[in-house]
Each structure stands twice: as structure tokens, then as C-alpha cells.
Design brief:
alpha/beta; Leucine-rich repeat, LRR (right-handed beta-alpha superhelix); about 5% strand; RanGAP1_C_sf; GTPase activator activity; GTPase activation; LRR_dom_sf
Length: about 525
């Protein structure tokens, strides 16, 4: 490291403070810590602390040698409780990260510290990373563990199985020692657990039985895995937060969850959004919520036509306001339903919205006029002229197909499709999840369709994206790239994970996203998230 870099690191560290909770934070400093020299000032800060219960390192990148040196200082703090190490290995090889984790875990164990929280989210270390955690998770230092956050790590099924076994081993030995593991928070979203991983983790949940939060969104779990998780939930009666967003329940999974919901009266937040619950599933879940759940604050689980049933239940519970977060993205009752857009059906739908549904259950008493007024439909052409979240929502369920149809023969024009993708992505923000999901669906359709043309190769796709974003200069001098890339980067992070997205395109994008550029600097978080995903694939 040059003297200039060392000066920069020293200046950054001068801003570091220990708060009243004895947390030492280096959050977001962007430090590249490769060796002992790079990490010296951090080590000095740690050693100066008489009491350090938490160390926050997110937003930096830690190499093996630097981790080994840092561990020597960490080992001197038996009072240490919270390892807040999310986003700490950007740019590191998957083979490096397990070694670094072993050094850090070894320090915690040798110090005799009792961990309360371990957060390693947003580190793309895959199943190899879990290997670096196994010894720590099984050790007495984790008998006291209450919060385990492993979100967006690319663990896969193998990593999930190793994680489950480590927790089971920890619980067994902690019980033998008279200090049973009492884990409260388990966060493991975006880790491709699928059914096998979910079934394995369910065994750990069932055995532990003290969980208050389980968050496993976007894991590709289908009804066998959902059923296994449901059985485990019944043993965790203090559960307050249950987030299984963006997995695939169908009716079978909904039935399994519905069976255990009456036993989970401490639930405050339920998120089953984008889970293909459908009408029947929504009705089943709605009925299971009728018998109590007075603590429920937020509920997101919409099946297209089952929303009124669910709304009726919530209204009967004086909790209809909780439905504000629900979205109409679940589809019709049958997977193969085809929407008929003729004038007669539209007229019928308008009449239905005016009069509303009548639910026969006397306890619910939901009658009369519809709760939500009819919104005027928006065409793909109107939306593309002036994109907005509201217009996108008013395009209906076939929005992706309608956009593709609007492009017509231009669907094979790669540059036109990419520019359209950027245009619709401009309305995406980090706060509006529903809009992001809808835009991702549309972008998937457009990019997948254009790649079917034999003329559109992986290198051409990457080049078109970079030019359209303004990262590379294009031949069209009249074209103006977006003023901000936050939305496009967030949607692109979703696209690069899709099977149809060319590997060569990922490699080219990874190279250019790693380089400094003014437009990318304006959207650091979105860029960083994209880079992490590109590295994971």
C-alpha cells in the first residue's frame, strides 16, 4: 500500500468512534485490507478498546493475511458479542473467504467470547464459506447466539445442509452443557435452498424451538420444502416474523402453512407475497387467520380473486389497514388460465367492481360496494411514453407480453430492446418492491425474447447495455443515457441471475462495473449489489 493510501486509511479511521454500546465501527469506509500493513491501524483501534462488544466491518474488503492479523487483536476481547460483518469480502476469491472466516472464528473461540449476533449477509461465499464457519457455529462461543443473518450468500443446498447440521450439533452440545442454544432470529434469503435445503433447515428449526423471526425469501422452495418448514414452525410458538416471500406455495403449501398458523398467535408480520398462493390458497390462509392473531401488524399474501376473502377476515379482525402492502401479482386460480381481453369481459369486470363480492360468512359481513374503485387500463404504448409505477400497475397482469407485442418486429433489435429495458427500469427504487418485481418480470421477457435471435450474442448484449447506460460511448450521438442508473442496475442485478443470460455477458459486465465511472459512483449501493451477484455467478 502506498503512503498516500495509508494516509487515506488513517484519515478514515480517525472518524471511527465507539458508541455507548461499545461498538467499534468501520462501516462503509471502502478499505482494501490485503495484508498486515493495511490492517494495522484497525488493529490498533481494536487494541485501544478496553471494552468492545461489537465490531462492524461492512463495506470493506478483507483478505486472508489481513484477517489473520485482525484476529490477533479480536482474540483479546472475551466480552465480544456481535460480529457485524456483512459485505466484507467483495472482490475476494471463494477460496480466500473460508480461510479468513476460520481466522476470525478461531479468535472468537480462543477468547472465550459468547456471540449474540453473527451477520455475514451480502458476502457471496457460497457453500465453501459455510465450511469456514462450521467450527465456530458448533463451538461453545455460539451457545449464546440469538441472531444469525446469512442473507444473499449463495449458500445453495449444500451450504444449507452444512448450516443445519452445525446448528443441530451446537444445540446438542449446548444442551449437554446446560446452556441450550436459544436462537431467536434466522435470516437466510436469496440462498437457493430449494426443497432439500429447506427440509434440512426445518430440522434445525424444529429442534431449536425458540425462533421469533424466520426470513427465507427468494430461495426457490416449493410445497415439499414449505410443508417441512410448516411442521417446524409449530415448535416455535414465539414466532413473530415469518417471511417466505417469492417461494412457490401453491395450494398444497398453503394448506400446510394454514394448519400451523392458529398455533402461532404471536405473529406480527407475515409475508407470503409472490408465492403463487392463488385464489384457493388465499382463502385457506384467510380462514386460518380468523381465530385470533390479535398481534398481527403486517400481512402480505394475495391470491388474485381471494383478496376479498382475505380482506373480509382482516376487516372482521379490525386489521383491514394491514392490506395496504398487498399487490395483485399472484395470477388466476389455474396455472393455465388465459386472459380474454374482449369488450364483453371488460364490461363484466367493471360491473363486478362496482357491486363488489358478497361473502356468505355472517361473521365477516363484507357486503355492498367494492372497496377499490375501477382504474382505467393503460396500454403499453402509453406506459412507454411516460413510464410511472401507477401506469405499470394499471397495465394488468399481461404487462410483459403487452410490452413485447408493442415492440413488434423490433423485439429482435437488441439496442431497441435494451433501451426499452432501461426506460422501464428508470421507475425502480429501493423502497418500492412491487414496482421492482413487475419491472423485472417485463425486463426478463424482453431480454429473453431478443436473445432468441441468432444475431444477438452475449458480447453484443453486454456492449449494448454498457453503451445504453452511458458507460461506453456509442455511435448514436443523439442518444441520451439515463441521468441515474440506480433503477437499471437493480433490475440488471436480477437479470444476470436468469438462466438465459449469457455467461460471457456477465464476465464483460463484471469487468466494466469494477472500473470507476461517474454514473456508477452516483449509485454505489446498486452497483455494489450487482457486482456481488456477478461474482456469485
Amino acid at each position: 500500500m502506498s503512503s498516500k493510501d495509508l494516509t487515506s486509511v488513517t484519515e478514515q479511521l480517525a472518524k471511527t468512534k465507539v458508541n455507548e454500546k461499545y461498538e467499534l465501527s468501520f462501516k462503509g469506509k471502502g478499505l482494501k485490507l490485503n495484508n498486515a500493513a493495511d490492517v494495522k491501524d484497525i488493529v490498533d483501534e481494536i487494541e485501544k478498546c478496553k471494552t468492545m462488544t461489537a465490531l462492524r466491518m461492512e463495506g470493506n474488503t478483507l483478505g486472508v493475511e489481513a484477517a489473520e492479523e485482525l484476529s490477533k487483536a479480536l482474540a483479546k476481547h472475551p466480552e465480544f458479542q456481535r460480529a457485524l460483518w456483512s459485505d466484507m469480502f467483495t472482490g475476494r476469491l471463494k477460496t480466500e473467504i473460508p480461510q479468513a472466516l476460520k481466522h476470525l472464528g478461531g479468535a472468537i473461540m480462543s477468547s472465550g467470547a459468547g456471540l449474540v449476533e453473527l451477520d455475514l449477509s451480502d458476502n457471496a461465499f457460497g457453500p465453501l464459506g459455510v465450511e469456514g464457519l462450521v467450527e465456530l457455529l458448533k463451538s461453545s462461543s455460539c451457545y449464546t447466539l440469538q441472531e444469525l443473518r446469512l442473507n444473499n450468500n449463495g449458500l445453495g443446498i449444500g451450504g444449507g445442509k452444512m448450516l443445519s447440521q452445525s446448528l443441530l450439533d451446537c444445540h446438542k452440545t449446548s444442551c449437554q452443557a446446560g446452556k441450550p442454544l436459544a436462537l431467536k432470529v434466522f435470516v437466510c434469503g436469496r440462498n437457493r435452498q430449494e426443497n432439500e435445503g429447506a427440509i434440512a433447515l426445518a430440522q434445525a428449526f424444529k429442534t431449536i424451538g425458540t425462533l421469533e423471526e424466520i426470513s427465507m425469501p427468494q430461495n426457490g422452495i416449493h410445497h415439499p420444502g414449505i410443508t417441512a418448514l410448516a411442521e417446524a414452525l409449530s415448535e416455535n410458538k414465539q414466532l413473530k416474523i415469518l417471511n417466505l416471500n417469492d417461494n412457490t406455495f401453491t395450494k398444497k403449501g398453503s394448506q400446510s402453512i394454514a394448519k400451523v398458523l392458529p398455533n402461532l398467535q404471536n405473529l406480527e408480520v407475515i409475508n407470503f407475497g409472490d408465492c403463487l398462493i392463488k385464489t384457493d390458497g388465499a382463502k385457506i390462509l384467510a380462514k386460518s387467520l380468523k381465530g385470533g392473531h390479535t398481534k398481527l401488524k403486517v400481512s402480505n399474501m394475495l391470491g388474485e380473486n381471494g383478496v376479498e376473502e382475505l380482506r373480509g377476515t382482516m376487516e372482521a379482525m379490525d386489521k383491514v389497514d394491514l392490506l395496504a402492502s398487498l399487490s395483485d401479482d399472484e395470477g388466476s386460480a389455474d396455472e393455465d388460465d388465459v386472459e380474454d381481453d374482449n369488450d364483453e369481459e371488460e364490461e363484466d369486470e367493471a360491473q363486478e367492481d362496482q357491486e363488489g363480492d358478497i361473502i356468505n360468512d355472517p361473521e365477516l359481513q363484507v357486503k355492498g360496494k367494492g372497496i377499490t374503485p375501477k382504474k382505467q387500463a393503460v396500454s403499453a404504448k402509453d406506459f412507454l411514453a411516460f413510464p410511472s409505477p401507477q401506469k405499470l400497475k394499471q397495465m394488468g397482469r399481461q404487462k410483459a407480453d403487452n410490452l413485447a407485442q408493442e415492440l413488434g418486429n423490433e423485439i429482435t433489435d437488441l439496442d431497441k430492446v435494451v433501451q426499452t429495458f432501461l426506460r422501464i427500469s428508470s421507475i425502480v427504487t429501493t423502497d418500492d418492491v412491487d414496482t421492482k418485481e413487475s419491472v423485472c418480470e417485463c425486463a426478463e421477457k424482453l431480454i429473453e425474447e431478443t436473445l432468441k435471435s441468432e444475431h444477438n450474442t452475449g458480447s453484443m448484449l453486454a456492449n449494448s447495455i454498457l453503451v445504453s447506460m452511458g458507460i461506453l460511448k456509442g455511435e448514436d450521438k443523439k442518444y441520451k443515457p439515463p441521468s441515474t442508473l440506480m433503477g437499471p442496475l437493480l433490475v440488471l442485478e436480477h437479470l444476470v441471475k436468469q438462466p438465459f443470460f449469457p455467461k460471457f455477458s456477465r464476465e464483460i459486465l463484471s469487468m466494466f462495473m469494477s472500473k470507476p465511472h461517474p454514473l456508477l459512483e452516483k449509485s454505489k449501493e446498486a452497483r455494489h449489489k450487482l457486482l456481488q451477484t456477478l461474482m456469485a455467478y
